[in-house]
């Protein structure tokens, strides 16, 4: 593989989500192979949905063995250091956020490379960024990450919008990558640190009705 | 985009499912961007599975910006009128049912256009019709719509069977669309209104065993 | 369709998973069409993910009507004999395990045929093998099968590794199929019979923290 910045980002996001997948799996008391499979599916989820939607098949992790080996090593690492991970909580949150930021970028980038409209590229970025975490949470029977209170999908969408805006202004690709990832990661860190949330719009039912049809 | 009847139906189904997605997301107290993402995934779910299964990539919402803008507008509309929606309950149920009917049709149609066997087209129609609602419910941690008591998947399958039968009889496409959608929508409305259900076949266990292996 | 061993295996796995899907659906008291749809999605899930990931579209069940008819017949069979199924519990467990073994093989085989690296083929085999059961359990709101205590994903991964090893040694394809499926099925049967489990690695939190961020 040519070591483009795109690929480096993809690898970074893969590592980040693999760790978060391994942690969720260990919390569910899975055996090592089960941990590996959850780590794997979490890590490749975002990139896979991105590739399938644009028709880039076989999907990227299939064309390049580095992903499988990386996720294997990350799984072993996560198992060995499982009792240290509590102290690493902040780094882990950071990794998850890096994954979100990175896959948002590769999603938008893929859209642009395939000649899709900027607004479509933003949507593709948002789905690529959030899908890995969603699939991890569905498999592990946890509340999907996009429902946790802190700003999550929002960080991702704002980052994607910044990306296509800078791209439109012909800003250099490396600078776009840097700025976009810092924005996504920055928004999410600040949101969690200062408990920032956007207002939610819960419908007020005049007569209480627990469940809509 | 050429304004074919197929595209008009696709847009109608998209609007219908976007509203239902936005409502589910507001019930989970998501912020506006989260509401948009759930509305988006619900609305494009059925069409996306349809396109991916036949290999029509990039999938249709990527080739045409109207879907993203539509879903954005629908989301804003749903947020603004969230407190009126209780009175709109019946219209909403109708929208959901329209989505079911419409995506069933576009699914069957896609199968036929791709030269697939009629029975395969029926299966594709059923999956396209139900997938949007299923993905919405999985993401929102609700019981998947196909498990709610009233006839749902059944309406969809009967409609699809009627479609391929009429197609085989060389009936005009517009008439097929009209008849099929009226059948799916009609069956579902009557089923809910009169609490019609098909018999279920629950296995009687001689010795009670809570969970099969 | 040419009656290759690959196709026979694919049909066997389809039947096995269709039965398990129909059983889960009947336990959820679905109506006959609902039972059919769950049986269908469970049965074609593994093969569909396999085909989509490598870009083999329209996916294989679309090119061949035998799958739809088979699943229809299996559904009817499962409904008729639902009260006998308790006595068939062991055969059913066997069917589920056959499905796991068979789709693991067709996944690995598809990877090799498409010129993918052996380790990628193993990953593809593992995902194809487990995906049918996972989608059934998610739709039926049960704990995903890979989380049940007995060795499941592990059997699948070991089988896939044996497959690529034998393939590398130029062993005859039929023998590889036989050995691999016997290994997957054997491991799972022995694991359930003797309650064999691999050690799990649950992180010990010095201060109890119910949920990681």
Automatic annotation (TrEMBL), chains A, B, C:
One Gene Ontology term, aspect cellular component: plasma membrane
Entry's localization field:
Cell membrane
Q: Name where it mostly resides.
A: membrane
Q: Which Pfam families match?
A: Gly_transporter
Highest taxon above the source species: Bacteria
**InterPro entries hit by this protein:** Gly_transporter
| Keyword terms | Cell membrane, Membrane, Transmembrane, Transmembrane helix
The transmembrane segments are 6-26, 33-53, 65-81, 93-113, 119-139, 151-169, 175-192
Q: Which stretches make up the Glycine transporter domain? A: 8-82, 94-167
Membrane topology term: Multi-pass membrane protein
User: Which family is annotated?
Assistant: Belongs to the UPF0126 family.
Q: What is this protein called?
A: Trimeric intracellular cation channel family protein
Species, as recorded: Christiangramia aestuarii
